[in-house]
Amino acid sequence: MAKAAILETPGEGLVIGEIDVADPMPHEVLIDTKACGLCHSDLHFIDGAYPHPLPCIPGHEAAGIVKAVGSEVRTVKPGDHVVSCLSAFCGHCEFCVTGRMALCLGADTRRGKGDVPRMTRSRGSGESEPVNQMLNLSALSEQMLIHEHACVSIDKDMPFDRAAIIGCAVTTGAGTIFNACNVTPGQSVAVIGCGGVGLAAINAAKIAGAGKVIAADPLPEKRALAEALGATHTVDALADDAANQIMAISGGGVDFGIEAVGRQAAADLAVASLRRGGTAVILGMMPLDCKVGLSAMDLLGGKKLMGAIMGMNHFPVDLPRLVDFYMRGLLDLDTIIAERIGLEDVNAGFDKMREGHSARSVVVFD
């Protein structure tokens, strides 16, 4: 039995309940969850903006200790400290073999209709019902049962709460800088939205040696966090002349405009901030009816638009490197974490996220 935060009805918050977790199948890993960051992507499902089979357990930004492994698992072993990642990879599809692991949709890493339920809960009278897994992980639970290609072993000296946020926010934000954009020293970057993902992108841009790192957010406290993490300049994202301010600061536009909040206006600002030949990168989960585009003049100026799901990571390699960056004092994860809470306070944590005034809340299980 494991305690978990269960989504039963979108818009009505999460319910704390007990679930039964099966023993690992050949390629599965059973993990005692130690910490899980609260991510805005979860909120899209919790509030009903994105559909998902119910009931289910959200949470996808986690770290823990391997308790047991399936008979074919070779990448981790019991006792290993691990970080999970929602972009599980099969290793043999077109995307994996061409180095685009984050785009993998390999069926063998995901549970399909008709599969034996791996998580269930009692409904009384001796009956049970399946509990669906969200985003390959379902980490807001005392235990996770996941595919071996959805986690990676890390240094045991790494604190679990800081390791957890590497699993999504930092992998997405830093991965965008290092992988999707391949920022080189001296290039300019604008980050629109200074939540966990945006702050990680700003910190990574500093590590990469970006010349100007411009943070745009409507909240002064978020802009202050951005400065602490390496922003050279800040702009009120809701100012009428925000794009013009970024243009002036960067001397004609930025090389990379990164949208990290999931709003149409933020994406439009990322595009409007570009120099000739610049690239806008959309990271946030926007409403499903949103569209982002380039004008004819943008195209004539060689501007580009792209998505970068999960920072286009290669997480078995990237995550241990990010842990090493933290351990050596290069990556600042402490500033990104606003609070540590218990599982019973998860709904209050998501309420705080809706208010938008602080960075990451992390559920700590011990």
TrEMBL record:
Pfam families per the UniProt record, alphabetical: ADH_N (PF08240), ADH_zinc_N (PF00107)
Entry cofactors: Zn(2+)
Coiled-coil boundaries: none
Key words of the record: Metal-binding, NAD, Zinc
Protein's UniProt keywords contain NAD: yes
Enoyl reductase (ER) domain span: 11-363
Family: Belongs to the zinc-containing alcohol dehydrogenase family.
The protein's name: Zn-dependent alcohol dehydrogenase
